[in-house]
Amino acid sequence: MNYLKSLKWEMVIYALLCILMGILMMIYPSSILNTICYIIAVIFLLLAIRYLLEYRKRDLINDFYKYELVVGIIFIVAAIFVLVKKDFVISIIPFIVGIIIVISGIMKIENALDLKRMDSHWVFLLIVAIVNVLLGIVILINPQNTAVFVTRITGIILTYSGVVDLITTLTVSGKIRRWVNDNAI
Fold first, then answer.
1. Tens digits of per-residue pLDDT, 113-157?
2. DSSP letters of 63-98?
């Protein structure tokens, strides 16, 4: 049961972060896109440093085929690419977010089907989850829009997805708790 409680709070935090990110994307789309590129570049540079440090301290005999130096250099090149080709990276961000939203919606469909198996209210959650998937698909199949417009739309959809995740998590965890209590031996 502690695992479920921990999972519940992880999902609540994830949902709240989605809502916050969605709101920021609606209000400051250009700034968010540029910031995301800088964050990605910094993450790549931090990973590069990590791998280069691992390379320096590895045991040459036992860790012969680890390729930390190569991976570190690849991360440096990736960071430079993100900074130099920021417009390209910005153009694919909505696509990546769309994939995340579709996956989130599919997970909620599974939650709805699990609620059905527990003989609980599930139809509303299923409908909301299907809408979530459809909104994610809209982002994926609409490449004509500019990144700023898509970022605003993505922000709206991400906020919606976060709200759905929050409601689903709280509903499912309550239903599971009641089901466990009712079926306890």
1. 988 988 888 899 899 999 989 988 888 887 555 577 777 888 898
2. TTT--HHHHHHHHHHHHHHHHHTHHHHHHHHHHHHH
Q: Torsion angle of alpha carbons 103, 106, 112, 113, nearest 10°?
A: -130
Q: What is the DSSP string of 89-135?
A: HHHHHHHHHHHHHHHHHHHHHHHHHHHHHTTS--HHHHHHHHHHHHH
- CA atoms 89, 93, 94, 100: torsion sign: positive
Helix (H) or strand (E) holding 175: helix 147-182
CA dist., res. 3 & res. 27, Å (int): 36
CA distance 37 to 43: 10
Structure letter (DSSP) for residue 28: -
Residues of the chain scoring pLDDT < 70: 1, 3-4, 58-66, 143-146, 185
Q: Which residue has the tokens 């964050």?
A: 39
150: closest CA among 71, 74, 97?
97
Nearest to 30 by CA among 141, 140, 149: 149
Residue 10 Rama label (left phi>0; alpha psi -120 to 50; beta) = alpha
